[in-house]
Design brief:
One of its GO terms (biological process) is intracellular protein transmembrane transport. This is Protein translocase subunit SecE. The chain has 58 residues and is mainly α. The protein has a domain at 20-58. It is built from two helices and no strands. It has helices spanning 3-16, 22-52. The model has no long low-confidence stretch (mean pLDDT 90).
């Protein structure tokens, strides 16, 4: 494990990184929010179907 090499590669990546503009940030936030909403909606629909349908058995 070469710590000096690892640190220089981390510093190189941080130098390339930049702060996103407001438009870029808002677009990413909208897409992430839509994804979270869709996953929650799918979970709720699965819960609702499982609560309505009889499980069968005894």
């Amino acid at each position: 494990m070469d710590v000096k090499y690892d640190l220089t590669s981390y510093v190189r990546v941080l130098k390339l990184a930049s702060t996103p503009s407001w438009e870029e940030f808002s677009q990413i936030a909208k897409i992430a929010g839509a994804g979270i909403f869709l996953v929650g909606l799918m979970g709720f629909l699965i819960f609702a179907v499982m609560a309505i349908l009889p499980l069968g058995g005894v």
